[in-house]
């Protein structure tokens, strides 16, 4: 685990020590929070005797990519249920292409049916059609995802003292895991990567309650840094990513960590973090998404 100091004028003016936790470097094929979320789910699937993982995601899903890689590395069959009609997604972008190359069987659902994917009738039909499987939710966020994410807090505490832990949020499982690891100590801030993410507060509280019997109050959800919506890459965000790489030699992903760091720097400028405190922002990986974004936007990164 690598902690990289970030020399940022906003942090200097705020009197805050800003660190970037490079969880994107933990595994060459399963970096960051995706491996942490999968770790105990894979163990449970094997304990239950399953040979197949079935999960859900959009066309650029880091989670689909991670499950496909995990299946190849562990010898488990993988099925990805993809949001959208197959014809509308052809030719496959690099995310879906690599998932298929890793052995994932892709099954496509129209968007209306996809929204109902967790209803018993829809899920039952999928399992009847595709065969028995250990089902992972979209984004991998369930109670078994939390202990793997909580381990990051333990590892971080062994490296440094800190006051705030910041992370991007898609489905909320990573932040929920961090909260169980923090156990009410220190403070955490989640940065929603999608519009209209107020529902995540309920989802995160529900996950921690189910996993530990507790809900926590030492956290906030920042919903103003989605950059236009999930997987939206504005010219301003692209410029931020380029300039951040020039300053720190770190490539951020276009969906999650880049938006979180925009938010962290803005909150620093607003005086949100206590003077004299240490803020740790987590780079959760997700760099595979650049394949599709390069293709769509000709970014030249």
From TrEMBL:
Q: Which domain of life is it from?
A: Bacteria
- Where is each Tryptophan synthase beta chain-like PALP domain found? 9-285
User: Which co-factors does it depend on?
Assistant: pyridoxal 5'-phosphate
Q: Which residues carry this modification: N6-(pyridoxal phosphate)lysine?
A: 34
| Active site, per annotation | 61
Q: Endoplasmic reticulum among the record's keywords?
A: no
The record's keywords, sorted A to Z, are: Pyridoxal phosphate
Q: Which GO terms describe its molecular function?
A: D-cysteine desulfhydrase activity
Please report a single Pfam family linked to this protein: PALP
Q: Which family does it belong to?
A: Belongs to the ACC deaminase/D-cysteine desulfhydrase family.
Q: Which PANTHER family match?
A: 1-AMINOCYCLOPROPANE-1-CARBOXYLATE DEAMINASE-RELATED (PTHR43780:SF2)
Please report the name of this protein according to its UniProt entry: 1-aminocyclopropane-1-carboxylate deaminase/D-cysteine desulfhydrase, PLP-dependent ACC family
């Amino acid at each position: 685990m690598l902690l990289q100091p970030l020399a940022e004028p906003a942090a200097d003016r705020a009197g805050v020590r800003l660190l970037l936790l490079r969880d994107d470097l933990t595994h060459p094929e399963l970096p960051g929070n995706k491996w942490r979320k999968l770790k105990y789910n894979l163990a449970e699937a094997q304990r239950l005797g399953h040979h197949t993982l079935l999960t859900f995601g959009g066309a650029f899903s880091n989670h689909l990519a991670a499950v496909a890689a995990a299946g190849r590395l562990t010898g488990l069959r993988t099925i990805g249920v993809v949001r959208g009609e197959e014809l509308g997604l052809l030719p496959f972008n690099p995310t879906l292409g690599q998932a298929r190359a890793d052995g994932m069987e892709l099954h496509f659902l129209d968007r209306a049916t996809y929204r109902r994917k967790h209803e018993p009738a829809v899920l039952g039909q999928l399992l009847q059609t595709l065969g028995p499987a250990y089902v992972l939710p979209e984004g991998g966020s369930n109670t078994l995802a939390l202990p793997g994410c909580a381990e990051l807090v333990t590892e971080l505490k062994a490296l440094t003292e800190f006051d705030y832990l910041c992370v991007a949020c898609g489905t909320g499982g990573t932040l929920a895991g961090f909260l169980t690891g923090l156990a009410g100590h220190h403070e955490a801030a989640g940065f929603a990567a999608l519009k209209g993410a107020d529902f995540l507060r309920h989802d995160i509280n529900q996950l921690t309650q189910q996993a530990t019997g507790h809900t926590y109050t030492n956290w906030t959800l920042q919903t103003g840094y989605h950059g236009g919506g999930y997987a939206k890459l504005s010219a301003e965000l692209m410029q931020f990513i380029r300039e951040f790489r020039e300053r720190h030699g770190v490539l951020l992903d276009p969906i999650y960590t880049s938006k979180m760091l925009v938010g962290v720097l803005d909150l620093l400028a607003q005086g949100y973090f206590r003077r004299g405190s240490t803020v740790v922002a987590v780079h959760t990986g997700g760099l595979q998404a650049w394949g599709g974004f390069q293709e769509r936007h000709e970014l030249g990164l």
